[in-house]
Amino acid sequence: MDLNTITEVRDARRAGPWRPGDAWLGGGTYLFSEPQPHLRRLVDLSRMGWQPLTLLPDGALEIAATCTIAELSRHGRKTAAPAAGLVEQCCRAFLASFKIWHTATVGGNLCNALPAGPMISLTAALDADCLLRAQDGALRRVAAADFVTGAGRTVLAEGELLRSVTVPARALASRTAFRQASIYGLGRSAALVIGALDPVDGSLAVTVTAATVRPVRLWFPLPPDAAGLRRALAAETCEADWFDDIHGLPEWRRHMAFRYAEEVRRELTEAPAQGRKGGSR
């Protein structure tokens, strides 16, 4: 849609002060989806020339904020990393059109901080970290699991930019399990749970998103039993953490999160040879 309050679009390659009413423009699929009456200027990142995906010397994967979902999906399909299947599963969780896949960006999905954002799910589950750049050029890193603090809220300061997200090589080598629930056949995620089993020390991470207003990542040095997992998830969440909108009531989301957490625990720890690669709805 047209944004009739926007008076200027500035190329992000040109230096200039950040002003009230400014917003970063990546793919723009969210910005142009509804009115933005508080915005006056867009700072366009599309010509920054950032490499979408970079394999670092230590085997980690750096994903530029401007990397599109289509680019990430192609990488996931062609790589042999054990966690590559999870990349495609999370890309498919968008349930978006061809146009959206080729326009929406990984960074935009994180910065929008919608509970159902599957790039939030992917990066939090794989223990990624976010590189943030302030207006004065100062850099800082934040764990992806801590980047989103609530529905529509992140740790970004005024004018701060999400530059990239880096997934460590060890996480890419993890065995993963994926579960997704929606009240509609092709609806927005209402609960998305991912398990990741570390290939080195056998530790287990279980990450809950979509059902909660922020990512909830539980890490266990040794995989827990069913009761231990349930206690840990109950201790890490409170009533206000469970999201409530037309895509699912908090009580149902909580039920599905606990159910799927136990399913991924069993898949990764009790019967690894027969674990399913696909997800559930």
TrEMBL record:
<dbReference type="GO" id="GO:0016491">
    <property type="term" value="F:oxidoreductase activity"/>
</dbReference>
<feature type="domain" description="FAD-binding PCMH-type">
    <location>
        <begin position="1"/>
        <end position="172"/>
    </location>
</feature>
<protein>
    <submittedName>
        <fullName>FAD-binding molybdopterin dehydrogenase</fullName>
    </submittedName>
</protein>
<dbReference type="InterPro" id="IPR051312">
    <property type="entry name" value="Diverse_Substr_Oxidored"/>
</dbReference>
<dbReference type="InterPro" id="IPR016166">
    <property type="entry name" value="FAD-bd_PCMH"/>
</dbReference>
<dbReference type="InterPro" id="IPR036318">
    <property type="entry name" value="FAD-bd_PCMH-like_sf"/>
</dbReference>
<dbReference type="Pfam" id="PF00941">
    <property type="entry name" value="FAD_binding_5"/>
</dbReference>
<dbReference type="InterPro" id="IPR002346">
    <property type="entry name" value="Mopterin_DH_FAD-bd"/>
</dbReference>
<dbReference type="InterPro" id="IPR016169">
    <property type="entry name" value="FAD-bd_PCMH_sub2"/>
</dbReference>
<dbReference type="GO" id="GO:0071949">
    <property type="term" value="F:FAD binding"/>
</dbReference>
